[in-house]
Amino acid sequence: MKSTEKLRQFIPLVDFMADILGPNSEVVLHDTSNPEESLLAIRNSSLPEREVGTGMSELARKILNEGKRTGKQFITNYLSKSYNAGKFIKASTYFIKDGDEIIGMLGINTDLSALSEVHRLLGQMLDVGEIDETISVHDPISIRETVSTVIDQVVGAYDTDPVRMTTEEKKEVACALNDRGVFLLKGVISEVASRLDVSEQTIYRYLK
């Protein structure tokens, strides 16, 4: 079976993934043997001119070369600035192989515009600023890392190791973190409880 025929078997998967992920996630299937007209299937296209029969973008070519160089089966959660729309895109690529040869790429490109706005609002709440517009292609946007930084800042304001803090100091830390909105994110109470060496129920009690 020719590589293009093998790749066409993945077209229903493109439709399946696009329906699950929704309109903000573009799903594409590339035939790497024909870079100038590589696009075999596309759903939720981010641009009108991006259609079946168009070629690989410069970024797609770089990702292909990275896959060939590293031998990886997939590369996930890399960041790019979308084509000419000026939007941040979180992308993931799965390499379809015939033996060791990459014959195709299945890609998911998710528009982060809405999430970027949420990140901006969280940045205001946590007083850590907005997304850096100079972010590079492979830098992840991690709200979890931002929250961890805020926890470090609040805990670090005390000279005492968190485990050795008094009950009153631990309560002050919990209240300060609550004022900065960190407990709006799922799982943070458990993380803070671990850092302060108390139970989650104790954190809830501190916040009453």
Structure, described:
The protein is built from 8 helices and 5 strands, in the order H-H-E-E-H-E-E-E-H-H-H-H-H. Strand 1 (25-31) and strand 2 (39-43) form a beta hairpin. It has 208 residues and is an alpha+beta fold. It has helices at residues 3-8, 11-21, 58-70, 113-126, 143-156, 167-179, 188-196, 200-207, and strands spanning 25-31, 39-43, 74-81, 88-98, 101-111. The chain has a 5-stranded antiparallel sheet with strand order 2-1-5-4-3, with helices on both faces. Helix 4 (113-126) runs parallel beside helix 5.
What is the global morphology? elongated
Mean pLDDT: 81
Report strand %.
Answer: 15-25%
Question: How far apart are the termini?
Answer: 66 Å
What is the count of distinct domains? 2
Unreliable runs? 128-142
CATH class placement of the largest domain: Alpha Beta
Named at the architecture level, the CATH assignment of the largest domain is 2-Layer Sandwich
Q: What is the gyration radius calculated from CA atoms?
A: 23 Å
The helix/strand order is HHEEHEEEHHHHH
User: How would you classify the helix and strand content by structural class?
Assistant: alpha+beta
The total strand number stands at 5
CATH superfamily of the largest domain: PAS domain
Number of helices: 8
Helix content: 40-55%
Largest sheet: 5 strands, antiparallel
Structural topology:
Blueprint: H1 3-8, H2 11-21, E1 25-31, E2 39-43, H3 58-70, E3 74-81, E4 88-98, E5 101-111, H4 113-126, H5 143-156, H6 167-179, H7 188-196, H8 200-207
Antiparallel strand pairs: 1-2, 1-5, 3-4, 4-5
Helix pairs in contact: 4-5, 7-8
